[in-house]
Amino acid sequence: MLIRRPDDMPFRDITAEADYVNRRDWLAAVGMGSLALTMPGVAQAAQRGQDDDELTPYASITTYNNFYEFGTGKEEPAENAKGFVTTPWTVRVEGEVKRPATYALDDLLKGVPVVERTYRHRCVEAWSMVIPWMGVPLGALLRKLEPTSRAKFVEFTTLNDPKRMPGQTRPVLDWPYVEAIRIDEAMHPLAMLATGIYGKKILPQNGAPIRLVVPWKYGFKGGKSLVKIRLTETMPKTTWNIAIPSEYGFYANVNPDVSHPRWSQARERRVGEFLRRKTLPFNGYAKEVASLYAGMDLRANY
After folding, report:
1. Are 224 and 159 in contact (CB under 8 A)?
2. What is the DSSP string of the chain?
3. How far are the Cα atoms of 69, 87, 102, 232, 262 from residue 95, in angstroms, in the given order?
4. Segment 7-32, tens digit of pLDDT
5. How far apart are CA 264 and CA 165, in angstroms?
6. Is 8-293 in CATH node 3.30.470.20?
7. Which one of 13, 15, 217, 239 is CB 3.0 to 4.6 Å from 221, fit for a cystine?
8. Cβ neighbourhood burial of 294 (10 Å; 0-12, 13-18, 19+)
9. Measured distance CA(201)–CA(135) in Å, rounded
10. How much is the pLDDT for 51?
11. Does residue 289 contact residue 182 with C-beta atoms inside 8 Å?
12. What tens digit of pLDDT does each residue of 25-55 get?
């Protein structure tokens, strides 16, 4: 469902999980997918996710996380992010864009339509979730910021503040965390910046107050707690690709035929399930996004 809000309305705070699921069932009953009022291809992709997959419970989504800034254990982010304050929050926009500035978050998102989208989420460690996100289409935000003709990539930088993010006191990675995607990937209607889960404001362990969601890529591409968006002409260096290039490629498209050097990517474990299931090319979104990579060797460009 596409939700439009007055420019001065803050993001919604409270929707009980049961109410969210009941609303989703009602929408399906009357023939409305979660994106019935947006682009048809996106609506169909999200509806397929709804039809084929059960939503991962809110409790699991918010307690089983990869967010090394708050710790490397799956349970550490939820514990270590307690008390993390996300207001006020600013995002710096720079590079090949006509409207560079440091924006308060609400000003950055002002005038951009809010959407709800249910997406599969696939981690490179071969576990997965089905998450009902709320946020804004990344492409719509970029159009507001007006990229120049030289913009070929979009880089995203996470907050670097060891006092607030205790995981950054450890030399696990070179901080701050940086990820990037091509401009055509960023403009694709499936890509979004999420500000909520299950109709509630996103929690710190999930990347509050704003994070990148690109559902056909492995989860490490989704930078969290973003403080900078930079548009560039050349491919940026990204954190995991710098740290272990043989394991973490720039593209990171979900590909069951390309194994991680230490394990297969052919199957995955959905959080909450015992048996593993087949991993789908592009995480099940091949119909929508495969054309972005026409002619590319997806084994070399992993």
Report:
1. no
2. -EE---TTPPPP----HHHHHHHHHHHHHTT--TTTTS-HHHHHHHHHHHHH-PPPPHHHHTTS---GGG-SSSSHHHHHTTT----S-EEEEEESBSS-EEEEHHHHHTTSPEEEEEEEEE-TTSEEEEEEEEEEEHHHHHHHH-B-TT--EEEEEE---TTT-GGGGSTTS-SSPEEEEEHHHHHSTT-EEEEEETTEEPPGGGTTT-EEE-TTBBGGGS--SEEEEEEESSPPP-HHHHH-TTT--SS-B--TTS-BTTB--SEEEETT-SS-EEPPGGGGTHHHHGGGGTT--TTT--
3. 26, 25, 12, 6, 37
4. 333 433 334 566 565 555 534 443 43
5. 32
6. no
7. 217
8. exposed
9. 10
10. 53
11. no
12. 534 443 433 443 345 556 555 544 445 689 9
Q: What is the pLDDT at residue 23?
A: 53
Residue spans per domain, the chain: 8-293
Quote the distance between the C-alpha of residue 147 and its chain's center: 21
Q: Output the six-digit token pair for 54.
A: 């059960």
Place of tokens 């719509």: 140
Q: Which amino acid is at 77?
A: P
Q: Which two structure tokens, joined as six digits, stand for 246?
A: 């043989």
pTM for this entry: 0.87
